[in-house]
Specification:
Layout (H helix, E strand, L loop, with lengths): L5 E4 L5 E4 L29 E2 L6 E2 L5 E2 L16 E2 L28 H9 L14 H9 L8 H16 L3 H17 L1
Amino acid sequence: MCTFLFQLTNPFGRNRCLNLYGSASFFPSLFTGRGSSVEPHSWWNWRGNCRKCSKKVEAMEGIFCCNFSVSRRGWPPCRNVWHPRCYECLGKGKFPMDSLVDEDGNPWHTNEEKLKRVNYAVKGAHLVVTFQCETCWVRLLEGRNPEAGDKEFISCLRRANLDAIAGRSKATISSHADRMAEVIRNC
C-alpha cells in the first residue's frame, strides 16, 4: 500500500509513490523498504516520547529520526524523537563559532539568535533534511549501539546533524513543514 500522497503507474506497470513535489519520498527511509518492521510508515501519524524530557511528541511537532519506524540492517526501529528545544548541541563551547562584533569589539545584536540557531533544532527539520539520530549513525558506521565511551563521538554526530539543520533557513523549514501539514489536513 502506498503511504505517500500520490501513486503513479509507469508504462511497465510498476507503481511508484510520489509526494506533493514529485520526489519519491519526504526522506529516504520511507522508500528504502520496511526492513523487518511492521510499524506504520505514515510519518504524519508518528508519535513518541522525547529522548531528553520524556514528554509526548505529537506528529509534525518534533524532530523524528528517519529510522523512527524502520528497521535497518537487522536493528529494530530506533523510535528516537525530540522536541526542537530538547535537541541541542552536546558540546557547547567545544566547537569553535565565529561571533560578530562591532568596531569596538562589542557583540553584534544577532549573536544570541545565531547561537540559538546553530545549537538547537527547528520544528519540522526532518521534513527538509534527512535527519538520522546519533544512535542510528553509530549503528550504521560502527555496526553497534552507542556505548558510554562514545560521548565525544556522539557529540560530533549531534554537531553534524545540527549543522545540516542550520544549513537551511528556519523560514524555509517552517514553511515546508506548514505546507506539509496543510496537505495532510486536506487529504
